[in-house]
Amino acid sequence: MPLRIADLLARTDLALSPGYDVPPPLRDRAIEAATVSDLLRPGKWLQGGELLMTIGLLLPDDVDGCREYVRDVAGGGAACLALGLGHDLRYQEAPRPLIDAAREAGLPLLTVPDEVPFIAVTKAVFAARAEERRAALHRSFATQRRLTAAAVGGGLPTVLREWTAATGVGAAVLDPLGRPLATGAGPGDDAPPPDAARDLIDRVATQGLRTSATSAADGRHLEVQPLGARRLRGLLLLTGRPDGAARAVVPGLVSLLSLELERRHLRDEPERRRRSALLSEILADDGPTAERADALLASAGLTAGRVRGIAVEAPGGPDEAARAAAAQDLAADLALALPGGLVRVLGGVVEAVAGEECDVREVLGRFAPGRPAGIGPATVPVSARVSLRQATGLLGVSRATGEPAEARGSGTSRLLLDLGDRPTLLGYADTVLGPLDLADHGAELVATLTAWLETGGAWDATSRRLGVHRHTVRNRLDKAMDLTGRRLDDPDDRFDLWLATRIRRGTAP
């Protein structure tokens, strides 16, 4: 309990008196320290919360001067002003200009009688502050013991409930993606607005164990602390501002919750192995039937009708053991984040299967930032190994682009073209289509060839797209083949022409 002005007035041994009728809200001000100064401008030497004592040696006699003095004291953050009275001192009672100035400024004014030295008031203030700190330390120890007992006899919810009961501060433990794992319900503790806490959660989750974050949203104090030993295992969200005693316990709370999450991680290892075995069965060359594949996914809690294969290149290390440990850590993170948790390690690659609706890029950005990764196309569960094979094939592409590569059906050719050097690609297109560029009505010939290739060689469809007769289409293509020396019925020539027109279309303004 902080020392208040009212507590000082209640001390009969100090015999302090209010200089005017100080209202109750001002009497409840906390006193942080006591100091003595007879400077005319003491404000710049104050730190805030002081009981400033003076004998008024340089105090102005006029109203304006007293107002200026009181403004300086209040501006320095003083909680209260005390004037020493005495027969041998300047004042035997508080002067009216000072009283009026203090009342106008809302600064409590006390008087110290002649028989009470300033040092007695100073000792009383610092003794009360020391007792306050001792009581806060006692509360901290008591709270820490309660939390430790809760951690021994219960889990996350028990620890959080004890914390909230002891401090009045709401708390919740979230997984690294911000999904709730446990909460401690406190009096009037509502879940914080998602938008208010989301920025803090994302900021801490991105930085891992290296940072924490606080903010105030809608008048509510929000704080996020990382949980975990070597890797981020979860997040602690506090909704409320801990007082001094509670603040001292926060590191202990973080340690207990981190220990519990690490225990959970070890306890879940058999389940992760089971799910890895399920994935191996689904991806086997002589894989299960469609019904069996659906059943295997359902047993892991994954009921999506379509799934994607995911391949991530595991982090390197100084030796084989370090690389294996890094791969297992990454696999455990992905097993926690991906619905179903179907993840396995195969060589230096972490493989996984997730439902089509899962935001795979967000998960990879959180747990495997900068790692080469491939994302296969969505397919039925029985064909998951086909999707994973394509994902693995895209690791080289991801390595070149620096971001996850995703197979998107017809978009694959676009991806491959984007990997090429633009001048080289354009030079290739010019080599193939250059004879048409130099011919009369060359643009018409290129446009007709492009339309015919894009419609799959359908004469009528090309005619409709260009708005010309099908014989005109045939005549133009015959001329184009004569100029280029190519044949439409030759697969290699047809591919070269398609690739050249594709390059041209991709770079057209």
From TrEMBL:
Matching Pfam families: HTH_30, PucR
Residue span(s) of domain PucR C-terminal helix-turn-helix: 445-503
Domain Purine catabolism PurC-like stretches: 28-127
Origin: domain of life: Bacteria
Record's protein name: PucR family transcriptional regulator
Organism: Streptomyces benahoarensis
